[in-house]
Amino acid sequence: MRLFVDCADPYARELELIAKLFFDGLSFVRDTPEEASWRARVTVEEGEGCNPVRAVAQLTTPERTYRAEHERPVRLGNEARARQKAAKKAAAYVFLEVLEQATGIVQPWGVLTGVRPTKLYHQFVQAGYASEEISALLVREYRLAPEKVDLLARIVARQRTVLPDLYELDREVSLYIGIPFCPTKCAYCTFPAYDIRGQQGSVDDFLRALMDEIAQVGAWLRDRDLPVTSIYFGGGTPTSMTAEQLDTLLKTLRTHVPHIDRVRELTVEAGRPDTITPEKLAILKTHGVDRISVNPQSFTQATLEAIGRHHTVEETIDAFHLARRMGVDNINMDLIIGLPGEGVDHLRHSLDMVGQLQPDSLTIHTLAFKRASAMTQNREAYRVASREEIHRMMALAATWTAANGYHPYYLYRQKNILGNLENVGYAKDGKESVYNIIIMEERHTIIGLGCGAVSKIIPPGTDRVIRFANPKEPKAYIEHYHDMLAKKLALLDEAYGTMGMRR
Ligand code: SF4
């Protein structure tokens, strides 16, 4: 599909994101209109002062012409930035409307193309809007479907119950620690995950570098007397390491992170069931790990084989029971909707199995075709469910979780996600992950340590997010972490000034 769009430069990116919601493999062009079968023109009057912005779109297809207009007040601040944002959203609004008319496809998330729709809801709450006003605004000005508005409202309410101080957390930080190893690489994966038997630098060399990072960041935190709210070990699969390596790493963490006993949550991803052993679980317990993930993704063996998981359904079940027997009382499970060859019946089976195991939380992902994954590069080889079936699966997951005592508590969206849907974290009462809420809502700095870890530095009292990424490959990390760490600490110093420093 080739779509020509005539618009001013500042709106092009937003409009391209909107167009991609409707067409797979879209070619979005802003020159050579004669080669495009569909042609659109979007104009915006930004206005000034307290006047609203105004946008008009016209779309011509081979069959007919569609037109939409929209006037939008400037909200959430009245300065130039708020006006520019309103202008972009107005352009997106009219463009979405003509595309919906022409295709007959209704986008449940309306003009929200970003990763974190809950952040917008929180902004309205903090600006003093009542929940009914927020719901009405999201439908009227963002074109959200009422069920998505309801989902956002429930999630935000839940987050504020779990973390009553969510809006005052900016003087604390969280830590993310990236362990870049897995037993094998799954076909849909773009995480830094290297075969632990591979040659990308030895695990011990990686650990030496990581422990040095932990020690230096720990010293920085101690100097500033900054409390740590939550710590998350991800990757990769941290439990790919041996029991001894895990023990050494967690001891280092306990030694260097100030006031570690006051950390609200310590999570270790044990995502691959084939990495979980009694010895490793005992070590996690000894070092105060509160929460782990054991991730089935699907309970259909043929699917696991098709996506290269290289573990069995039985291993997932055994690992879960083992963790329970050893007293792990907060276990998350991940399922993915839309894995190759799967439809509603496969999901129903997976949910039945989850129902038998009763994990404390359940994260429902929708498959995303990320550019770098092996699955995307070989996309024709995989048959995935239709848009309609994906929507039915998502609806089944929502109904099932509600009927089984799981509440939605965090949500995020991704590009190229099947059906333009979302990933939702559900949990039983009191089992929500603090870290997951903090990372989604960007409420304070998360310092990333280890491979592929992205630090998100948020200077206290601002909504600025400064990203800083560690190298993804173990070899590059081992060679360069020292210089990268110096740069990261300089950014942190700049963001925090003299805050908390002892005189
Ligand atoms: S287990 Fe997770 S991190 Fe490892 S390869 Fe599979 S999807 Fe990637």
Concise synopsis of the structure shown:
By secondary structure, the chain is an alpha/beta fold. It contains 15 helices and 18 strands. The chain has 4 domains: 105 residues, 2-Layer Sandwich (Double Stranded RNA Binding Domain); 47 residues, no CATH class; 192 residues, no CATH class; 135 residues, Transcription Regulator spoIIAA.
Radius of gyration: 24 Å
Domain unit count: 4
Work out the helix count.
Answer: 15
Structural class: alpha/beta
| Unreliable parts | none
Span of the ends, CA to CA: 63 Å
Percent of residues in beta strands?
15-25%
Assembly status: single chain
In this structure, how is the largest beta sheet organized? 9 strands, mixed
Overall residue-averaged pLDDT value: 92
The total of beta strands comes to 18
Characteristic terms for this protein:
5-stranded mixed β-sheet, alpha/beta, 9-stranded mixed β-sheet, globular, Double Stranded RNA Binding Domain, binds iron/sulfur cluster, 503 residues, 41% helix, 15 helices, 4 domains
Can you describe what's shown?
The structure is a single chain. This protein has 503 residues and is of the alpha/beta class. The chain has four domains: 1-105, Double Stranded RNA Binding Domain (2-Layer Sandwich); 106-152, no CATH class; 164-290 and 432-496, no CATH class; 295-329 and 331-430, 2-Layer Sandwich (Transcription Regulator spoIIAA). Helix content is 41%, strand content 19%. It has 15 helices and 18 strands. The protein has helices at 9-20, 80-103, 117-126, 131-142, 146-162, 203-224, 243-256, 278-286, 301-306, 313-325, 344-357, 374-377, 387-403, 434-441, 474-496; strands at 2-6, 27-29, 38-45, 53-60, 65-72, 173-179, 181-182, 194-195, 228-235, 265-269, 291-293, 331-337, 361-366, 407-412, 423-427, 446-450, 454-457, 466-469. A nine-stranded mixed beta sheet has the order 14-15-13-12-11-10-9-6-16, with helices on both faces. Strands 2-1-3-4-5 form a five-stranded mixed beta sheet, with helices on one face. Helix 1 (9-20) runs parallel beside helix 2, helix 6 runs parallel beside helix 7 and helix 11 packs parallel to helix 13 (387-403). The longest helix is centred in the N-terminal third of the chain and has 24 residues, at 80-103. The chain is globular, with a radius of gyration of 24 Å. The model has no long low-confidence stretch (mean pLDDT 92). It binds iron/sulfur cluster. Iron/sulfur cluster (SF4) is lined by residues 182, 185-186, 189, 191, 193, 235-237, 271-272.
